[in-house]
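Justification of resources, computational component.

The compute hours requested in this renewal are based largely on the per-chain cost of generating structure records like the one below. Each record pairs the submitted sequence with a full structure-token output. That output is archived, and it is also reused by downstream analysis tasks.
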Amino acid sequence: MYVAVKGGERAIQNAHAWLAEERRGDTSVAELSVPQIREQLSLAVNRVMAEGSLYDPDLAALAIKQARGDLIEAIFLIRAYRTTLPRFGASAPVDTGDMACDRRISATFKDLPGGQVLGPTFDYTHRLLDFKLAADGETPDAPMRNAEPGPVPHVTEFLNREGLIEEAPHDDTTPPDLTREPLEMPADRALRLQALTRADEGFTLSMAYSTQRGYARNHAFVGELRIGTVPVEMEIPELGFAIEIGEVTLTECETVNQFKGSKTEPPQFTRGYGLVFGQTERKAISMALVDRALRWEELGEDNVGAPAQDAEFVLYHADNIQATGFLEHIKLPHYVDFQSELELVRKLRREVEASQGQHQEAAE
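The structure output for this chain reads:
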């Protein structure tokens, strides 16, 4: 038994060494630095921060480097590191109305205070490979920034003035912390939004797409999508007031959804909401659509059996770290389990063959 363990340890050490060699790649090619990943692969960094529940671009970039670009592995590394950090306090809720927007668009109103700010986006690119990027030393021209300084109002406030959209739910109750307590059902909206923020982007996108195809009767407009920085404040008991301790980049999406009304609610528009670390607009839009689909019960709608309406299905399958752990554990040794099943199948086959032999003798 000791020899087997020792041999296994040696094999694992060799696997780790080989992994490090593969991660580095051809040593004649310059090694990627953490600042390069942070600055030039920023959308990957943003995803790792969002799904890892830790806002630190440098650590996210390091995790991507260590994981050889496997973002789920990088997210796993960030979550594991996060558990080692002491918690010394809690920040005040951020006010996205004070966001300094780099990008702000609306699919519902063309002219709005503050204007449509396209910002850095792939939306209007031709999706053609740019071979100039393969050349070393390329320096892009500095763009003309058309964003107006200062906070801009949320688009849904215009509909709210006429009472055409539901009031934004307001609850001062401190929500449970999904990073410290396991998910439990039934989950209220605050807990669902936490889970969706940490959820795998691909899974959330698939669920959102299913609602657009008719699985949830969820026809949405992007009321507003905004990306920018917001200040983070923390209450200091010794001072008696809050002070700004930094700022974070967020993507916020609020959808406007058709709603014919119910027995308890008048005809109006309803909301879906998404808020994610960094520039992560695909995730924020997907999150808003799934959030709206999960609200069917509180709005008095019928459950049509759509996957996106099933909170247990969505929330328990959305976390890529849990899914990866359960999926990948089946490649680990299961020798004893398999041998017992193998012996069972052999026994059943012997019984079937014996039974068939008896029937054949009786027929003769």
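The two ends are 54 Å apart (CA to CA). Strands lie at 100-105, 220-236, 241-257, 270-277.
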